[in-house]
Protein 1
Amino acid sequence: MIISHKHKFIFLKTRKTAGTSIEIALSQFCGERDIITPISKEDELKREALGFRGSQNHSVPWRFYSKSDWIGLLGFKNRKHFFNHANAHFIRENIEEGIWNSYLKFCFERNPFDKAISRYYWSTREPRPEISNYLHSAPVKLLTNWGIYTINDEIVVDFVGRYENLNHDLAAVAEKIGISSDLKLVRAKGGYRKDRRYYSNVLDTQSRDRIELVCAKEIVAFDYSWDNKKNK
C-alpha cells in the first residue's frame, strides 16, 4: 500500500489484482515523506533496479497508538506498521482524519471466479491439490478483497478500478492524482498460472458455489456474474 502526501492519494493494495505491479509503478512518483510498505525481496530488487523509491516510512506514528498498542509494546511485541494489504479500517485509524477525508483513495478489484484460479496457482505448488479442494479449504480472506476497501460493508474508497480494464482505469487514476498517464507496469509475481482457459472451463459446480458464497458482496456491488463462455 502507498500513502502519498506528495500527490495526495492512498493506494489500498488488494490481492491478485496486479497490486504489486501497480505499487511499483506508483512508487516512482512518491516523495521522501510518503509511506510505502515493503514487498517481497525479489520485487524490491526490481523496484530498485528501476530507480524507484523502495519501502519507507511505514512505522505507524506513536500518536496513533491505543492503550492496547502500548501494552503490546511492553509485552515485547513489535512496533505497529502499515503493511502490504492493510485494510481501510486500519489505515483510517492510523492517519490524520483530514488526510483520510481529502486524499484520493483507490484500489482494484477482479472477477472473483478468475481471481480464485489465480490465487490457487499462486498458493499451491506441484503436485497441486484439486482446485475445488483448495478453494473449500483456503482462508476466506485469500479469496475475497471486500474487507480491504470496505468498513462495515460500505465501500469507503473513491475509486475501484477493474483488473479487466487495468490499463484504462490506471490511466484514469493517474489523471486524477496528477501524474503521468503513461504508467509502465512491471511484471511482478507472474508465471505461476499454467491453465489459461476461461474460468467456466476450469471451475466445477462446487467451486462456483464456494466463490459465489464467499464473494457474494463484491459480485453484487460490481455486477459480476458467472459466464459459461467456452474456450475455442
Protein 2
Amino acid sequence: MNEPHWIQWARALQAISQTGLHFTEGLYDKERYRQIGKIAAEILAHHTNLSEEKILELNASEFGYATPKIDVRGVVFMDSKILLVREVADHDRWTIPGGWADVNDTPSQAVVREVYEESGFETQVAKLLAVYDRAKQGHIPPFPFHVYKLFFLCEITGGFAHAQGETSEVAFFGEFEIPELSIARVKEEQIRRFFHHVRNPDLPTDFD
C-alpha cells in the first residue's frame, strides 16, 4: 500500500522549509522558506482534520536539518505468544508496546523504557528485528512527518503485567489470535513476520 502523493509532497515541502530556514541567513530567503512551510501546512489541513495553525505549530517545534523521526517498538514473547497492549489513544486497539525515542536515550534504552511504561515488564534488548519506513509499510492514517520504525526483540527480566498511562490492558496472544490492531502503530503482517523471526533466530534484520 502506497501513501497518497499529497502527503509525500507536503512532507517534502515541510522538510525543504525546515532545512532552508536552518541554513539560510538572508531575510528574503527566510521568508520564502516560511511560505513553502505554509503551503505544506495548507495541503495537510485540506486533507486532514488538523487546522493549518496547528500544523504550523507542530512544524515550528522542528528545527535543524530535517530528518525522519524514530518510533521504537519492543517485541516480547512468552510461551510462544507475543505481548500486546491496548492503546487508549486509538480506541483501545492493540499494539506492540513502544513510542517515540527520547533525546539522550540510546535506541535500546528507549525501547526498554517504553515497554516498561506501557506493559509493566522489565526487559533487555536481544536483537534488532526490523527497521521499517512507516510510509512504505502502509500504516494509516498518513503522518505529517517521515518516520522510521525500529522493532527490537526484547527478553523479560522482571516486572509484571500492569497497564498504566497510555494503555488500558496488557496480554499475550498466539500467532492466530491477533486482536484488532492499531494499524497506525503496527500491522498484522509485521507481527506474523516477528513470529517467523523467533522460529528462525538466524534471520537477518528486515529493512524498508
Protein 3
Amino acid sequence: MSSAKNVAGIEVASREPRGSRRRPDVVSPEVEKIRPRSRLSRAEVVANQRRRIFDGLAAALAYHGYEDTKVTDIVELAGVSRATFYERFESREACFAAAYEDGAERLANCIEAAALLAGLEFLAADPPLAHLLLVEALAAARPARLEHERSLVRLAEALRPPAGFPDGGEVPEETLRLLAGGLASHVSGRVLAGETERLPEDHDLLLGFLLAPAQAVDARVAAG
C-alpha cells in the first residue's frame, strides 16, 4: 500500500486494486430484519429496505471504492436479495445518487437545526456515510457529482455566519461556495486519514474559518 499527502498535509493511503482490498472477514451490519408476518405497512417495509441498502452501499464503498463496488457487495452487506435491490433501484448508479441525496439532506438538516458541531458529530458517528458523501461522490457518475455541487451550496447557506456582513448585507454566494468547498476539503482529509471520529475536535478551527470573511469586512469598516 502506498501513501501520499493531500492538500491538507494529511498522509493518506492510496487505493489498491479490488483484489487486495476485499475483506473476507466483513459481516453484514446489524440491521432490523423484517419478519414475514410483521405488522409493518408496505411503505415501512420499503423504507427499511432502502435504509439497509444505503448502509450496505456505504460499507461496500469503504472497502472497494466507487469504481470497484458491485451490486453483489451491496446486497451482501445490506442483507437483502438482488431482486429486492433491483425493485428499489434500477442500477448501482441510481442507488448511489439516492443514497447521496439522502445523506446530504440529513447532514444539512442537522446543521440547519443545531449548527456546525452537530454536523461534525453526525459525520463522526457514521464514518462510511462520511466517506460516501465527501470522498466517493467525487468519483461517482456525473449526476451524483452535480448533486454534490448543489449540496455544497446548501451547506454553505446552512453555515452562513450568524452575524452576517455589516449593515445587514448578504454574504455573496460565491464566497459561501468557497467556504463550503474549503470545509469539505478539510473534512474529507480527515475521512481519508481514518480520523472521521475526531471531526468534532475541529469545531473551533472550522468555525473560525467560516466566520473569517465577515470578521474581515467588520475590521475594514471599523478602520474607515
